[in-house]
Amino acid sequence: MNTLRPVGADARLEIEIRRKSFEASRGGSIDVLHDLDFAVEQNEFACLVGPSGCGKTTTLRLLLGLDHDFEGRIKLPGAGEPRIGMVFQEPILLPWRTVEENVRLALPKALQGKNLDHLFDALGLGKLRAFYPGELSLGLARRAALARALAIEPDLLVLDEPFVSLDEATAQQLRHLLLQIWSEHPTTVLMVTHNVQEAIMLADRIFVLSPRPSHVVGSFLIRVPRQSRNPQVRSDILRSFHERFPTQL
Ligand SMILES: Nc1ncnc2c1ncn2[C@@H]1O[C@H](COP(=O)(O)OP(=O)(O)OP(=O)(O)O)[C@@H](O)[C@H]1O
């Protein structure tokens, strides 16, 4: 039995997964998540890190309602029908629609006709609104996917490795763009990443997961304001992260 229910507008995201398993191809079942509990405060930027295959994407799929087969409870932020923006590793844009059409198709009724100039400009997509996804590099397609996720003014932004397999300069540029837009319009963010340095640049809090069956080993709060996280400060934070979680990743 599971429940997936939205609560009041100022609520936080609460994940309490008692058990999630998959049927193994050779019979029996594989326990992936076991007593996985954490909460993300309203407008907090949280990252989820953990060993490969521990169940990070599975956790996101459960909270997005893409998989209902689990024991536990997930409380989403936002009132009524919460708006959830999501960006996956694959940008998943409709190839026969322009960038702007892809973004507009995602808009809820209340935001139809919204002026998107500022968002497109902020993401460097101003001149590419009429382009088709096939005409974009991976970096630009990721920008379009971010635009689509942010345009809906989400109560919750869910990101699954959105900067993976980009060259470092492009990834860094996108991280800065995301932070800039998020600081103008803060929302609750849960992002999966393999990259602890990326998490240290972006997050208020990092949740560290154990190997399968996965639970939260600990949460790492970063109190230093983002604008003060220069390379030296980030490397100090990274050192204390590794001191606290020496074997997890
Ligand atoms: N539909 C499925 N059927 C069976 N097993 C699955 C299914 N989806 C995921 N798994 C298994 O569940 C485990 C967790 O997968 P998941 O993709 O959530 O891990 P992850 O932490 O996101 O991995 P990575 O860091 O490598 O992206 C893996 O062992 C995976 O093989």
Automatic annotation (TrEMBL):
GO MF annotation list: ATP binding; ATP hydrolysis activity
Keywords for the protein's UniProt record, in alphabetical order: ATP-binding, Nucleotide-binding, Transport
Taxonomic source organism: Mycoplana azooxidifex
Name of the protein this chain belongs to: NitT/TauT family transport system ATP-binding protein
SUPFAM superfamilies: P-loop containing nucleoside triphosphate hydrolases
Domain ABC transporter: from-to ranges: 17-236
Source species taxonomy: Bacteria, Pseudomonadati, Pseudomonadota, Alphaproteobacteria, Hyphomicrobiales
Pfam families: ABC_tran (PF00005)
Alphabetized Gene3D superfamilies for the sequence: P-loop containing nucleotide triphosphate hydrolases (3.40.50.300)
Domain of life: Bacteria
Family indicated by similarity: Belongs to the ABC transporter superfamily.
